[in-house]
Design goal:
Chain lengths: 406, 256
């Protein structure tokens, strides 16, 4: 206890120096937390965006449909799968989808189009499709008076074919049985704008797409939204065990390219922060070494009256950690309201960004224990590291030489 | 490419071959002629001057089996018209061939789509027959040099593309039953002499006074489990209802 008391008092012997050191530590900490919050926040925004836009937390496919999509790699009797998922209390919602490339025609023009058949009610609860509609209304699964199904088309298709709400849309593709899939649909809604990711997509009611592609009672993809977004991997593994005949992947696998580049970028971020903190600590090291140097005589006296060298080294370490801890504590108090504001309000972007049909008007940060803890441990780790050479220096001095110096 | 390459320095083997073939020239000439006759007779079998046929096409793949019934009309080698009668969802889909051009009509969307030259090797209605099979197969004796071999029961004719012609196949083996004068099989090879697909003829039946194999099987070698069978249910030659008006865009577009 005496050791701590001594160490605490030593910090306040040179107040101005301690204050300057603490300020550089506090600055380094706040900067680190802020940068972490921004990187976590923007990545989490991106993840939330595509999870809700189309990926979901978990996807189920037949065989390797994800890598090599073929129309016949389909999940038969999706109702059975739906019943299992509806009964799972960890699943918030799920949706069924059918995919096919196609050519879309109007009377005069044609353009390539990606057909996605969706279970309309389930899709609405699982993805942001309904929110992306820029004209018209979310369609229903029934035939209209003339016997046509409705379709929701990307703005790019509407533009290329020069068609709008209520117009006829002709689709041609290849059916699962090798036949020529061809049918007419009525445009019920336009999705997104010409820069959206789904500008070339045609959304059909699930039943219409199954008829179109001669794919009765089968789907290509089941996309699942979980209640707890942190459990995607665990739940995927659990479902995989339950459904050995299908391939179950968490979003980290579905969006593997994104996930890997995100991991790499985050690691790079940690290294970069490490460098900032290292530079801060070169200053701290100077402080500690100075305080050891000017107390050479004092250490000599302490040793002469019987202090053990290890005790002296420990005292230097405790002093450094104490100073660092106080700085970090102040840093947390300063950065907490800043990060709170950053995560709730964020910076208003000069111009709202359109990310795949969803408008993002603010750059926001992440508020989590992780954001505060990682820089804290980095700084404390460095503090212990640099107190070692200073401690050794204090421990190794000889009382006779030391007491002679001034 | 294959037929236009010229080697300026003949090898010894080539010189020997030339000497030998000159010696055999007279017999070759007559063999060539009869080979042409045989192939022409085979190609003529299914067509006559004009013809009207009802057939069943069965497409088999590892994933599905599909059966289509269709009606086909033709005049000579230049004009053909095929209309799908069943299944219901494909009913009325039609193909018109005039000389070297081809159109498909899709009644559900009321649209005529021209088959572009790049799609000629594409599948016809998801079968193992290509669009090219429907359009071009008729010019075998114009585009290929023929060599005839005889066994006790078969004529074996090898078709190699003539120089300066652009053909799809590097070689075709055409086997004919000598006694019945009906085709037995055709093997199609690519430029590197690899077998790509084979067509087998079987179940000969007497139709309109002629003995004709009523079943044809097309088997692609490189696609395991794939096969297309055509069965002739009816075949009439020079029927009165066939006239030029069938082979028009107007007829192609007519609702059925």
């Amino acid at each position: 206890m005496l050791l701590f008391k001594l160490a605490f008092r030593n910090i306040f012997r040179q107040r101005r120096r301690s204050l300057l050191t603490a300020m550089s530590l506090i600055g380094g900490y706040v900067l680190s937390v802020f940068s972490f919050s921004m990187s976590e926040g923007s990545y989490n925004n991106a993840i939330t965006f595509f999870v809700q836009d189309h990926t979901g937390h978990i996807q189920i496919h037949k065989e390797d449909y994800l890598q090599r999509p073929k129309i016949h790699k389909s999940i038969p009797r999706p109702d059975e799968l739906s019943a299992i998922l509806d009964a799972n209390e960890r699943v918030a919602s799920h949706t069924l989808r059918v995919f096919a490339p196609s050519i879309a025609y109007s009377d005069t023009d044609n353009t390539p189009a990606q057909v996605i058949g969706v279970d309309l009610a389930r899709e609405r609860a699982t993805s942001t499709l309904a929110a992306k509609i820029s004209a018209g209304a979310y369609i229903g699964p029934e035939l209209d008076g003339e016997g046509y199904y409705s379709a929701m088309i990307g703005a790019g298709i509407a533009n290329n074919l020069n068609i709008g709400l209520g117009d006829e849309l002709i689709l041609i593709s290849q059916g699962a049985d090798g036949s020529i899939a061809n049918d007419i649909y009525r445009v019920g809604a336009i999705v997104g704008d010409r820069s959206s990711a789904d500008r070339s997509t045609v959304y059909l009611p699930l039943v219409a797409s199954q008829e179109f592609l001669s794919l009765p009672d089968a789907v290509h993809e089941v996309s699942i939204l979980l209640k707890d977004d942190g459990l995607a991997r665990e739940e995927a593994a659990r479902l995989q065990e339950l459904l050995p005949e299908f391939t179950v992947d968490p979003w980290q696998v579905v969006e593997a390219t994104f996930y890997q580049s995100m991991q790499t970028d985050k690691q790079g971020n940690v290294v970069f922060l490490g460098i900032i903190i290292f530079i801060v600590f070169v200053g701290v090291l100077n402080t500690v070494l100075m305080s050891v140097l000017e107390r050479t005589r004092e250490f000599g006296v302490l040793k002469a009256i019987g202090s053990r060298p290890a005790k002296l080294a420990l005292m230097i370490t405790v002093e450094t950690i104490m100073l660092t801890s106080i700085s970090v504590l102040i840093g947390v108090m300063l950065s907490a309201p800043l990060i709170l504001w950053f995560s709730l309000a964020g910076f208003a972007l000069p111009e709202p960004m359109d990310v795949g049909g969803v408008l993002m008007s603010h750059l926001t940060g992440e508020l989590s224990l992780y954001v505060f803890a990682v820089p804290m441990f980095l700084i404390l780790g460095f503090a212990i590291l640099i107190s070692i050479p200073a401690g050794i220096r204090a421990a190794l001095n000889s009382p006779k030489e030391a007491m002679r110096s001034h | 490419m294959k037929s236009t390459s010229i080697q300026s320095i003949p090898t010894l083997a080539q010189l020997l071959f030339v000497l030998l073939s000159t010696a055999l020239l007279s017999s070759l000439a007559s063999a060539q002629e009869s080979a042409v006759d045989i192939i022409d007779a085979m190609e003529e079998l299914y067509r006559g001057e004009s013809s009207l046929a009802r057939m069943t096409m069965i497409v088999e793949t590892p994933q599905f089996q599909r059966t289509m019934e269709m009606e086909s009309s033709s005049i000579g080698t230049e004009k053909a018209f095929i209309r799908i009668l069943a299944p219901r969802k494909d009913r009325g889909i039609a193909t018109l061939k005039l000389d070297l051009e081809m159109w498909n009509y899709l009644p559900k969307i009321n649209k005529v789509i021209k088959v572009p030259p790049s799609m000629m090797m594409g599948s016809w209605m998801g079968s193992d027959f290509t669009n090219d099979d429907l359009v071009k197969q008729t010019t075998l004796t114009d585009d290929y040099d023929l060599t005839l071999e005889e066994t006790d029961t078969e004529y074996r004719i090898t078709l190699v593309p003539k120089s300066n012609t652009v053909t799809v196949w590097g070689k075709i083996d055409y086997n004919v039953n000598k006694e019945l004068m009906i085709p037995l099989s055709q093997n199609f090879y690519d430029d590197s002499d690899r077998l790509i697909r084979k067509m087998e003829f079987s179940e000969p039946r007497e139709i309109s006074g002629l003995l004709i194999p009523s079943r044809m099987e097309m088997i692609p070698i490189n696609k395991e489990g794939h096969k297309t069978v055509i069965i002739y249910d009816e075949l009439q030659f020079d029927p009165p209802e066939i006239d030029e008006s069938i082979f028009t865009m107007r007829n192609l577009r007519s609702r059925f």
